[in-house]
Recover the amino acids of this structure.
């Protein structure tokens, strides 16, 4: 399996977790503001990775992955806020935060590798 397939699969699985978190926050916690933010940024990661698969050039590919990286960092921030404001418990936070960190590592690695191949 190629690195791009792993990244695409992990980002899609992460987006599904984010969607489920959004549903939980709305239905169980009646939280609509932070949950909408994490939904937008958390699902945007995979969308940008998917779009990068059809990039017009390696530079365009790096650009799409960089946007995905920024969205991942933003998602991490919203998850921290949801945890620290006690909307999500420690166990849930640790689990989804670990997945988010994994995406950060994979994206950073992919961007660095692609940039080095440009030179």
């Amino acid at each position: 399996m190629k690195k791009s397939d792993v990244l695409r699969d992990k980002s899609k699985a992460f987006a599904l977790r984010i969607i489920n978190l959004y549903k939980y926050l709305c239905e169980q916690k009646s939280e609509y503001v932070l949950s909408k933010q994490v939904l937008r940024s958390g699902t945007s990661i995979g969308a940008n990775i998917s779009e990068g698969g059809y990039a017009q050039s390696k530079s365009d590919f790096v650009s799409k992955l960089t946007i995905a990286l920024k969205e991942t960092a933003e998602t991490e921030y919203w998850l921290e806020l949801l945890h620290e404001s006690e909307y999500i418990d420690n166990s849930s936070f640790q689990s989804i935060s670990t997945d988010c960190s994994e995406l950060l590592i994979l994206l950073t690695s992919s961007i660095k590798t692609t940039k080095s191949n440009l030179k």
The chain has a mean pLDDT of 96.
